[in-house]
Amino acid sequence: PTEQHQWAENVAARITRNNEADVSVCILDTGVNYNNPLLSRFTNSSLAAAWDISWPLFDDYNQRPYNDHGSRQAGLCVYGDFLSVLLNDQDISIPYNIESGRILPPRATNDPNLYGAITTGTSSRLELENPNWRRVYSLAVTAEPNTLGGQPSSWSAEIDKFSFGLEDDIRRLFIISAGNSQPTNLELDYWDSVTLAEIEDPAQSWNALTVGAYTDKTTHTDREYDGWSPFAMSEDIAPSSRSSVSWGWKKHAPYKPDLVEEGGNKLLSPSRDEITNTIELSLLTTSGRATNQLFEVNSDTSAACALVSKHAAMLMAQYPEYWPETIRGLLVHTARWTSRMHERYRTERAQGTPKSAKESLLRMVGYGVPNLNRAMHSAENALTLISQSEITPFKRDGSTDPTLNEMHLFSLPWPVEALRLLPPETNVILRITLSYFIEPNPSQKGFRRQYSYQSHGLRFAVIRPNQTLENFRASINRNANNEEYNGPEGDASGWFLGPQLRVRGSLHSDAWKGSAADLTEMNTIAVYPVGGWWKYRTAQDRYINNVKYSLLVSIDVPDENIDIYSEIQNIIQIDNQIDIEH
């Protein structure tokens, strides 16, 4: 304990704080002990609430039951893996606060029918104290679903409704853990175990970022486990993660998880019949105590959820003008599969088809591991353009049924001169991400049709080399009105996913790889609506509503000597903005 307090004092001396910070990570869990000296700079009793006012704001270590899960989440939301903080002497700048919403009772359990109301009601209580703060809602509490896998539940729909914010015009970013699993058949490849472990409720939420776990932790020196080996390989899925591969409703459900982050590893016995957790293969964080043992370990998808929540809060503080949809999109846009995940993809492709392999990976690890540095700072040879826009998806003439209303055409300021300097054989990468929130259908009647749950859908398309603008416009109008159409295989040339795979949920991201010469002609993007219940349930007049979306576009040029950033900056300064044509 003495050593731990010395560590805490060392860290406290390096912290710089903006006491006027208006960004917060709102941790919805068992409560956070704001008296822990490693947390007290970021939170206090005025930033804590409980669903039931008779509940303590956090559990006292000296009383039972004691559950400090919320405090352990808070440490990761502030510091990340604490070990890396202890191993360096750099200053620590945390530009956000920590709020605690206790949604789990100290004893017994909540009524499952109230899960949604408890989650959003506790969040609203915290919002009343600081109504102008921008928040990341971090939820690492899940339950076994009582619906067909992937189908919306009352809990996930309540989160989608709260995120969409139609009633109070506040849109909210939720980050939810996928839920944890315990491998039972150790003879089975842990990848196969995760395939069978379905993501839990409410992580099927369309508007939330769902986080699974991967691991980079494979080194252990504990002599007690001499001869034991890391259960998962480096850069692979963590054994405790969950997936949506086995969902029964996956024909209509989003790809989940959206991202994976570090969730720790396990050790496998020499006889391969036992696994165990160890401190070294877990993440170091804060405990729920204010004295003595200030540190604890955390792992699995809870830890991963906390890390992504930290990333989101850093971005929110760095870019106050960015919408929640944009923060969500930016985290996905800058995420990548690891080399091990690419190996898994090649194995799956050899056993099936490219399409089935891609969908399998998307439902195991989503778009990969987020990269905060990439998200915070566009390198000169990997520039990201961002547009935050509003569109009116539907219109109605007289008493006729609503129809699709408008599309947006973006003229892209490609650095043609810089791209022409590249050797003809050089491949460049164009990456596009479209992020928006949907209003869930208030009905709970099975959601059998393709567009029965979401209020609306949006899609993007890019003009092909040698395609005229008139032909491009006509093809989108034709295809958008065909609700069964998901794009021909021919349109997918150069795209990793293509139009048939990038249609799930309300977050669509894809990458095109090809020549710089072709890219210079791919200078127009369309964002256009597809169906949703707003179009079919006319009594509520939702079809007149505008909706927001964020479009992120980047080009990645492998030649570091080519400065695309300066040329695009000059073009944007001349044109003032990315041109949008309605």
Automatic annotation (TrEMBL):
Hydrolase listed as a keyword: yes
PROSITE patterns: SUBTILASE_ASP (PS00136)
Annotated GO biological process: proteolysis
Keywords: Hydrolase, Protease, Serine protease
Top-level taxon of origin: Bacteria
Ranges for domain Peptidase S8/S53: 22-368
The family this protein is said to belong to: Belongs to the peptidase S8 family.
Gene3D superfamilies the record matches: Peptidase S8/S53 domain (3.40.50.200)
Membrane-spanning parts: none
The protein's name in its UniProt record: S8 family peptidase
Taxonomy of the source species: Bacteria, Pseudomonadati, Pseudomonadota, Gammaproteobacteria, Enterobacterales
GO terms for MF: serine-type endopeptidase activity
Keyword Hydrolase: yes
